[in-house]
């Protein structure tokens, strides 16, 4: 079971959601997940030495994810979809040789008693196994849309499908396709490129300080924060601008930590703390406690 509360080490790790779509193959998923864990660290610079660390998870705590504005390590920054073709009988293999993009239903002859025992437990898996590839792609896109506000990049790993069936659904950049798990030798390189693309986006956000020159910078807020605010704020005041810039600097500090610059991140956090103290923003000051402890 995954921990419900992030540990201290997770503050510098980029959250990557790994999810299986279509036919469920626990064995394949677990083996792929283990391989992903082996490439969770990627050195992106030699001087200074910088390492981006991925936090691959197979389930999410929605109660924590929604606070991504406050702490960047809670954001779903990357998505990896895993799509495995279902097993086929000889007759099914012959009937689908034309490759119309349909994921065939699993039909395996079993004794009647076994069918009765497994009927309830396998009903969900059976429904998933009858999905067509376009339907699987729709599930994948739906998940991307769910986390679109924080998602930076995504990849889809497919096992057991022909490239012709996949080319019209996924772009070559987003797709990592393999005939079988044993042929997935280049998967690690594909994931490294995936992490590198995420790094460049986060790095650009770290370097973007244009908000400091704005007269009315945007103000990051937590879900329902406005509902519990006492009184009205003067959005033209210097105190409100300090609050906005202080919160935005906090986010820049988070990106600095995620992109492998812990020393600079401490300086960025201190700059944010100074502004938040001047603005009396106790809520976002509390978020710094996790980093200072």
UniProtKB/TrEMBL annotation:
Highest taxon above the source species: Eukaryota
InterPro entries: Trs120_TRAPPC9, Trs120_TRAPPC9_N
Ranges where the Trs120/TRAPPC9 N-terminal domain occurs: 229-286
GO CC annotation terms, alphabetical: trans-Golgi network
Any Pfam family matching the protein: TRAPPC9-Trs120
Similarity annotation: Belongs to the NIBP family.
Listed name of the protein: Trafficking protein particle complex subunit 9
Species of origin: Toxocara canis
Upper lineage: Eukaryota, Metazoa, Ecdysozoa, Nematoda, Chromadorea
Gene of this entry: Trappc9
């Amino acid at each position: 079971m995954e921990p419900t509360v992030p540990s201290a080490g997770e503050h510098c790790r980029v959250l990557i959601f790994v999810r299986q779509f279509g036919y469920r193959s626990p064995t394949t998923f677990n083996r792929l997940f283990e391989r992903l864990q082996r490439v969770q660290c990627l050195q992106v610079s030699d001087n200074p030495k910088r390492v981006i660390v991925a936090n691959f998870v197979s389930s999410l705590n929605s109660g924590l994810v929604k606070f991504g504005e406050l702490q960047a390590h809670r954001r779903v920054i990357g998505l990896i979809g895993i799509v495995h073709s279902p097993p086929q009988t000889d007759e099914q293999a012959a009937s689908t040789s034309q490759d119309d993009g349909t994921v065939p239903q699993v039909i395996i002859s079993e004794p009647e008693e076994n069918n009765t025992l497994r009927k309830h437990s396998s009903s969900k898996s059976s429904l998933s196994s009858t999905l067509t590839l376009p339907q699987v792609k729709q599930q994948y896109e739906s998940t991307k849309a769910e986390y679109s506000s924080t998602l930076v990049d995504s990849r889809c790993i497919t096992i057991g499908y022909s490239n012709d069936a996949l080319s019209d659904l996924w772009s070559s950049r987003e797709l990592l396709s393999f005939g079988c798990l044993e042929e997935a030798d280049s998967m690690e390189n594909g994931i490294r490129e995936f992490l590198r693309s995420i790094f460049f986006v986060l790095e650009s956000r770290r370097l973007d300080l244009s908000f400091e020159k704005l007269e009315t910078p945007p103000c990051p807020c937590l879900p329902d924060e406005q509902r519990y605010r006492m009184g009205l704020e003067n959005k033209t005041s210097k105190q409100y601008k300090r609050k906005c810039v202080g919160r935005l600097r906090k986010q820049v500090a988070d990106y600095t930590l995620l992109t492998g610059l812990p020393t600079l991140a401490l300086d960025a956090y201190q700059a944010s703390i100074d502004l938040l103290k001047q603005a009396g923003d106790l809520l976002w000051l509390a978020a710094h406690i996790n980093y200072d402890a």
